[in-house]
Amino acid sequence: MSLLEVRNLTVEFATSAGQFRAVEGVDVTLDKGEVLAIVGESGSGKSVSMLAVMGLLPWTATITADRMAFEGRDLREITPAERRKIIGKDIAMIFQEPMSSLNPCFTVGFQIKEALRQHLGLDRKARHNRAIELFEQVGIPAPEKRLNVFPHQMSGGMNQRVMIAMAIACNPKVLIADEPTTALDVTIQAQILDLLLELREKNGMALALITHDMGVVAETAERVAVHYAGQKVEEQPVAGLFGRPYHPYTAALLAALPERATSRILPTIPGVVPGQFDRPAGCLFAPRCAHASAICQTRPPLPRGADEGHARCHTPLLPDGKTVAAPIEEVSQ
Amino acid sequence: MSEQIVTARNLARHYEVKQGFLSAPATVRALSDVSFDLRPGQTLAVVGESGCGKSTLARLVTMIEEPTGGELRIKGEAVTRDHWASLRSSVQIVFQDPYGSLNPRQRISTILQEPLKINRPDMSAEERDRLAREKLALVGLRPEHYDRFPHMFSGGQRQRISIARALMLDPAILVLDEPISALDVSIQSQILNLLVELQERLGLAYLFISHDLSVVRHFCDDVIVMYLGRVVEQGPSKEVFANPRHPYTKALISATPRAVPGSGRKRIKLQGELPSPMDLIEGCPFAPRCWRVTDQCRKSRPELSGGAHGIACYNPED
């Protein structure tokens, strides 16, 4: 049984201009000790799908799913009180913007100890010691002093580390890290990623890493899910994804990396991600796809089998990475 | 080789910070002893972690601030306060955050024409309009975008508008302060390509400030690696990346994740933190975190030496 299992998750937001579908038919499976990376551009629904699992979306959001289970219990069927016992303890999240995610009215020490009191019921002394230990783990110098400091007195990188310390305070079974290292310098980024991987080794923690940095993905993840405009378009083990992408979007994303460039002009993906009002009728990537055919414009593709990277594509790429198979006209209807 | 357009010799910028009522003000050495040359058509990258002084350098070159030491020459003229007004139009800057650097209340037309209104007051309105439309086309935006507001554009398009605005006065030098780090991966390559094309077409000199080494490696001719306000390594980018000699450069390169799964590289882990620029460190600023440190490093500071590929280190890597 998987630790976290989400089937066919869809999230819609009620906006003044009508329903906006931010996440569409996304599956997430996470086993003990596994590192899953979720990559995609902004607006691809990667954060929203994880916030839905955490139950942190505002009331304007409508969440539908066939299944949303943690350790076999469906998160939507248990009471809010029970859910609060799981969220923050067994499933924890590192949020994207440390400056706006920490409460400016309380010291960071208070905020980190709050989780320890709520979930673990430690006494004052034990909480203090644990907080110091956590600060040391995430590489905050002079932890004793830093506990009494307010978020605005520290740099973004330091606050990010406080966020990480808070998230790992209760030794979560699943840690969702939403761009945990984007605000940090590369040398600190390397420290933090090593720390997260170490926690996984030690506690068997599962890690869902939301990022847009392909380098971070390649060096930390085991499995990668690529999101585009709210859909999961491909999912593969990391070596397969980088070596043999099936979806043209994945391939284009990899080709656009400066380190893979062969000439001074980089290959690009023309256009932008579709928004609320210009969502294509067929494949969502079709308007930007170099290989789009007639069927792509009209019919939304379904995910393929695991042997083809679950690619949501009518015409997945062939091994040379340049050409596609001829679209199979469906005989149904 | 063409004429140097920017020459900097031992540039320094120190700030005085008040520490309290009675104590003497402390000095923050944001930038010390930076020297470089920039030619038309050349891209010089400045890399380093936050707090290393790369943005301070950008502020000096764009004449937002005055250096407290050293000499800066732009187009052969010494940069002093009396020359600022005449030189400023040849140096323009593109900022990191395209969401914060465009006035949300102004139309694109107004944003683009503003530099002309201020610097070329004699120019007629039609001429301004014509130039603004021309620059808009130059950065790959369509004529119908001309009368829109910034909120109607995506991040990549806004960055194009910022670039168009920077080009309005036909500058010779563009300072690019992390121009793509706020953009999505698929948009980053579009903007980089635009910058390459503009450079080829207009012969611009770029001062490219970045912390993304994979972009610098691809895009830049020369690179300056800074640590705590000082240059630790400087040279042609190909050589610096292929053969980094300063331990800090080596650590920085090894810490940058590469999109090659399972490469099993050993990352060099740096211990500790960037020291505060207020503390006066005797000796090499990198010594407290360096793994090749000797007593000599702690006592005196190594000077940048070694010609075209210079390093400031007593025990460089081979």
TrEMBL record, chain A:
PROSITE patterns: ABC_TRANSPORTER_2. One of its GO terms (molecular function) is ATP hydrolysis activity. This is Dipeptide transport system ATP-binding protein. Belongs to the ABC transporter superfamily. It is found in: Cell inner membrane. Keywords: ATP-binding, Cell membrane, Membrane, Nucleotide-binding, Transport. Transmembrane segments: none annotated.
TrEMBL record, chain B:
One of its GO terms (molecular function) is ATP binding. One of its GO terms (cellular component) is plasma membrane. Pfam families: ABC_tran, oligo_HPY. GO terms for biological process: peptide transport; transmembrane transport. Gene3D superfamilies: P-loop containing nucleotide triphosphate hydrolases (3.40.50.300). Its main location: membrane. PROSITE patterns: ABC_TRANSPORTER_1, ABC_TRANSPORTER_2. The keyword Transport applies. Transmembrane segments: none annotated. It is a peripheral membrane protein. It is found in: Cell inner membrane. NCBIfam families: oligo_HPY, PRK11308.1. This is Dipeptide transport system ATP-binding protein.
